[in-house]
Design goal:
heterodimer, A: 294 residues, alpha/beta, four-stranded antiparallel β-sheet, 39% helix, globular, B: 293 residues, MetI-like fold, binds adenosine-5'-triphosphate, binds magnesium ion
Chain lengths: 294, 293
């Protein structure tokens, strides 16, 4: 890729969660969302977290980003305990968080400008490069409302990348995009990641997306959530959508699904409708697979 | 006396979000849409009813009121019977006096109201200190403030401006506060992550984020200004449109009274329109299609 040069290598990016617990509220209204969660995000790796809807994925990202403080336990970034938000851990949010009152260019430029870490002209040049890299050159002077959903996600990616975060936290960034755009964005993110040396922690509730992107897949339990299983995704890189039909892919998927299935069954027993849907989907899939195997 | 025109301001706020084309295309579209003709029909029916009720048939007590023909003649006359028409200096003196008072009061209200509203929305302590007392003072009708204003403020002019200020002041504070509160948490989080300082957050998140509500506040506030201005002028003025309405009633100069009323309506409409135009300029990011950008 001729663009690769414009992404600088970043040092660090190793995130460790040690026995992180997060509770909200007090007394009778208290709920535990994250329970004793321990895992590691290796630097230079694509780590994907998958978990049922509402299990606490966003809360987990918020704790790592420093927006929420853990009730107990700690988040450690390259050896230092995280105590608040900062540009070393940028978040691409579940809902778009581009400032609607700034053009694409200003949205992308603004971080480095407020941090005054280089000359305005250099920042603008860098911003233009990144905007080109995400294919939005024609839209650099448009406002977010004038961009499509997929373009907004790409602009947000550029805004995060220009800050050279040590770790990029992505909270279901492609949720709400149509299937086609979603696939394009996945391929796009793969191209951006592979060979760049970046560290990414990516949250999703979609199994195909998870396996396609991940080096390491962390399967979360239902709330109060913790890591239920860790699956190493050993599909070769560079990845592409064709791998979704490979044999290894099917094995990994079925391994992950059976863990999610157990979670869904116990959640279903506890009265969750979303879980019921998953159980149903899983059973259908089993029967289809059974037929093709014969 | 009900509250000022809240609904119109909210409607125009909704319009702000709509697509924005170059003005020539907009005018052409507007002329092709049924809107101008409906508006013309509505206004036409109003004038026809006026003509029929008063000029033509003198229905019931409407017979006492100035007719459409009479009033229009007086308004357009170079030598008006009661001394006020489009061609007299006195007419413009009243308009100017009222406009000057309204704008002085309005600018005072927004320069004080916006910072207070922002502080209330941004700082919990300040909110806790100010909100309860504000909510007690706010419902006191402007008319009830008149004696206090006369006792407290010197001269004739300052009490009138003070009263006019008050209504817009509360509206501005409240809408600014709502505006700050309406800003999605995610923008604050994004700003924190990107390393914004407090002053960056103020100027690049809070103010632009609250601007849509602030401008709704300005429009309602402008209406409130005219509303309280007239009340204040009727009671303690010596010039201005509100004063003139009352004076012409007192001296039984009914056509002039009607002319002054209509002028008040036009002035209020124009000044609200001005606020809206400024708002649209400042919030071009809310329009899907921008002219020349
Ligand atoms: N600030 C908060 N105060 C109280 N409860 C909260 C708070 N934030 C999240 N929760 C609760 O934590 C649980 C998990 O929420 P979270 O948004 O982290 O889940 P999620 O897995 O990201 O869900 P989704 O799939 O919908 O994105 C929910 O039950 C939610 O009500
Ligand atoms: Mg979430």
């Amino acid at each position: 890729m001729e663009h690769k040069a414009s992404i600088q290598p970043v040092e660090g990016g190793e995130v460790k969660l040690r026995n992180v617990t997060k509770q909200f509220g007090e007394d009778v209204a208290q709920t535990t969302v994250i329970q004793d969660c321990t895992f590691e995000v290796e630097r230079g790796k694509f780590t994907v977290v998958i978990g049922p809807s509402g299990c606490g994925k966003t809360t987990l990202i918020n704790v790592i980003a420093g927006y929420e403080t853990p009730t107990s336990g700690e988040v450690v970034l390259d050896g230092a305990t995280v105590s608040g938000p900062g540009p070393d851990r940028l978040v691409v949010f579940q809902e778009t968080a581009l400032f609607p009152w700034m053009t694409t260019l200003n949205n992308v430029m603004y971080g480095p400008v407020v941090q005054r870490d280089s000359q305005a002209a250099d920042i603008e040049k860098k911003a233009h490069e990144l905007i080109e890299l995400v294919g939005l050159s024609e839209f650099s002077h448009k406002y977010p409302i004038q961009l499509s959903g997929g373009m907004q996600r790409r602009a947000e990616l550029a805004r995060a990348l220009i800050n050279n975060p040590r770790v990029l936290l992505m909270d279901e960034p492609f949720r709400g995009l149509d299937a086609m755009t979603r696939q394009l964005m996945q391929e796009y993110l793969l191209r951006l990641f592979e060979g760049s040396g970046r560290t990414i922690l990516f949250v999703t509730s979609e199994i195909d997306e998870a396996i396609l992107l991940a080096d390491k897949l962390l399967v979360l339990s239902r709330a109060p959530t913790h890591v239920k299983a860790t699956i190493t995704v050993d599909l070769p890189r560079p990845r592409n959508l064709e791998m979704l039909t490979s044999r290894r892919y099917a094995e990994l998927k079925s391994e992950a699904l059976s863990i999610l299935y157990q979670e869904a069954v116990s959640a279903f027993a506890a009265g969750s409708n979303a879980a019921a849907d998953l159980v149903e989907a899983f059973e259908q899939r089993q029967s289809v697979q059974g037929k093709t195997d014969k | 006396m009900a509250s000022p025109d809240t609904t119109t301001a909210l409607e125009s706020a909704a319009e702000m979000v709509s697509v924005r084309y170059p003005w020539r295309i907009r005018v052409r579209r507007w002329l092709r849409s049924p809107r101008p003709y409906r508006a013309a029909l509505g206004i036409g029916v109003f004038f026809l009813a006026w003509y029929l009720l008063i000029d033509a048939f003198k229905v019931w007590r409407f017979g006492e009121l100035p007719g459409l023909v009479n009033s229009t003649q007086e308004w357009l006359s170079a030598d008006p019977i009661f001394g006020v028409s489009l061609f007299t200096a006195e007419y413009y003196r009243h308009i100017w006096t009222s406009f000057a008072r309204v704008f002085a009061a309005f600018f005072a209200a927004i320069t004080l109201g916006v910072p207070i509203g922002i502080l209330m929305g941004w700082r919990r302590i300040f909110f806790g200190l100010t909100f309860p007392i504000l909510e007690i003072l706010r419902p006191i009708p402007i008319l009830a403030w008149i004696p206090l204003a006369i006792l407290l403020l010197p001269g004739r002019e300052i009490p009138i401006i003070g009263l006019t200020f008050l209504a817009a002041f509360f509206v501005t504070i409240l809408n600014t506060l709502l505006g700050v509160r309406s800003i999605d948490q995610v923008y604050f989080r994004a700003a924190q992550s990107l390393g914004f300082s407090q002053s960056h957050i103020l100027w690049h998140v809070i103010i632009p984020g609250a601007l849509p509500y602030i401008f709704v506040g300005f429009q309602i506030g402008m209406g409130a200004c005219w509303f309280s201005l007239v009340a204040a002028e009727i009671l303690s003025g010596s010039a201005g449109l509100g004063y003139k309405v009352w004076e012409t009633y007192y001296y039984v100069q009914f056509p002039t009274m009607v002319i002054t009323m209509a002028t008040l309506g036009l002035c209020g409409y124009l000044s609200s329109g001005l606020v809206r135009i400024v708002g649209n300029r400042l919030m071009r990011w809310r329009a899907k299609l921008l002219a020349g950008v």
